[in-house]
Design a protein that fits this description.
The protein has 157 residues and is mainly beta. The protein has one domain (8-155). It has helices spanning 19-29, 79-83, 119-125, and strands spanning 14-16, 33-38, 42-50, 55-64, 69-74, 94-98, 107-114, 137-144, 147-155. Strands 1-2-7-8-9 form a five-stranded antiparallel beta sheet. The chain is globular and about 45 Å long.
Length: 157
């Protein structure tokens, strides 16, 4: 069973994933973790790239079948640091594709949110009624058949 509903910025395009998948993910990330399937067919993912540290940046986009671009995560606005305005996202220096192995019709993208357990108190501090927005980690998996492959991970707290 999920800890929270999907964060507000994804609520309309994400649905709860299969309980077996959630259990598998919670084995790695703990019981304060939720997982959702992205309902928009996505042909690729793009991520901002931090050249100074040679690592993924804090913005993740999904590119749909018509080349529409949807922000799936922006560390300056989403998660614990985004809610408390603690993340300086800086400039987008570069954008890179995240390799996805399956065709859009053969795969699902699973978006995972890990919580520390204090998100209800954090929401109260911000006068928010949305504790689901105060996640500590976001992880994205590509699922082909029963195989999960991690393609993105970012700490938000």
């Amino acid at each position: 069973m999920s800890v929270h509903k999907a964060p507000r910025h994804l609520f309309a395009i994400a649905s709860p994933c299969d309980p077996d998948i959630l259990n598998q993910i919670q084995e790695e990330y703990g019981e304060n973790t939720t997982a959702f399937m992205l309902m928009v067919p996505t042909k690729r993912l793009e991520v901002s790239w931090d050249k100074a540290y040679n690592e993924v940046g804090g913005i993740l986009w999904g590119i749909d079948l018509r080349d529409g671009k949807t922000v799936l995560f922006d560390a300056a606005r989403h998660g614990y640091n985004g809610q408390f305005d603690l993340f300086d996202g800086g400039d987008i220096e570069d954008v890179r594709d995240i390799e996805l192995l399956g065709a859009p019709s053969e795969r699902a993208l699973i978006i995972v949110f890990q919580y520390g357990g204090d998100e209800t108190e954090y929401a109260k501090e911000c006068s928010s009624e949305n504790p689901e927005d105060f996640f500590d980690w976001i992880v994205v998996y590509e699922r082909i058949g029963k195989v999960l492959r991690k393609v993105y991970e970012f700490e938000c707290a």
